[in-house]
Give the backbone structure.
Amino acid sequence: MDTYRPPDESEIERPPAIVNHTIENDSDGLTIARLFFEGGAWLQYRKAADEWVYEEMFTADGEEVASFETEFDRNDCNTPEEYLSREIGRYDKYTVRGLGIQRPHIATVLIEGY
């Protein structure tokens, strides 16, 4: 009789780790919150002049791979700091496979080496 044995932590493949994060203002005083990963790629949440908050993924070379509004309703947007905090809180729970399913624009850069 076979019994399911969940994998232990050492058997779970994790994506590259977060190495740092920053929160700063651009030249117009709008907030940019960045999350940096092993290898140099980064994810940022940027408040734009049009009041939308954009989630943008960059390669280690600074090439933008993805950019989209974080919400469907501009009035429902959180601050870049809140999106950054939420991503930090959930990122360490991702497996490589889960990241590819739930956050494909991040996995494209970190896992597939876009």
